[in-house]
Amino acid sequence: MDYRGEAPPVLLDFLNYHEHIRSHSRKTVDEYFLDLRTFFRFMKLYRGLVSADVPFEEIQILDIDADFVRGISVTDVYAFLNYLSRDRAKSQRSRRSGYGLSATSRARKVATIRSFYKYLTTKVKLLEQNPMQDLDSPKSRRSLPKFLSLDECMQLLASIDGKHVERDFCIVTLFLNCGLRISELIGLNMTDVRGDYIRVLGKGNKERIIYLNEACMEAVNNYLPIRELVASKDKGALFVSRQGNRISRSTVHHLVKKYLLMAGLDSTQYSSHKLRHTAATLLLQNGVDVRTLQEVLGHDHLNTTQIYTHVDNNELRLAAKLSPLAGVRPKKTSTEGEQ
Q: Measured between alpha carbons, how far is residue 247 from residues 12, 28, 334 in Å?
């Protein structure tokens, strides 16, 4: 996506700031643009500035300027959230998907709007006061991450076979042992493999080092000779497709789903991101402390990592067993006594 031809100057400056000064990924900046484009399209429709018969996705926002942005209030944003929760299609590609975005999706758009107005107030001083300072975010239910058990991990690894077995085994092994994000895995270069560790470029272009255990090193060493034989269009990429391109996100999703199915596991419940959850959970279960795990996963905040401490907490299980009422049993019924 190239937002430069669609974003008005007041928005373009914000996007450039995040991409080139804050070093946010292009994907993140694209999401900022899409969120704010949807918001401004709604505001133009909400204020009667476009005809009601103009399709929502065709509303242009190039005329949005500082005065328009300055005139938006918190109550306008709440009207936008009402539209998202009731009238916005869940998938813009298919109207059959139903209507109403989840609280998580709405909360992300609120975060984007907050960030935009904070930038206008504190960075470029376009606003004297931030009208979104007290903007509330939708409450979302935080569910525990799904993960594979150790036995299921063994099943998954044992299922990997076929023409690209060395590549695919290496990919799944790194997911399960190192907890990589899919963007981090597909972004790995040959030069990032350095003996017993790999250099990973995470969110916000932050580099971190992940050390490899014996299984990972063996998987990498088995794959590298195969990789060197591939006539790749992207000579730097570690993982490449059959056509010689850097492996794509969709290809990785597909191969993970394929092997989950081959292993007899529920491919609808698990994905490549669930393998990251699996790595985090297994590491905690086997003695890695939460702060070390934070470094491994590349989380900025500890509370993001701490959700894994609630997945399978032995201390909580022990607490249940230590209840003074744990030994109480129900009385036998009179019927049981007669028998």
A: 31, 20, 68
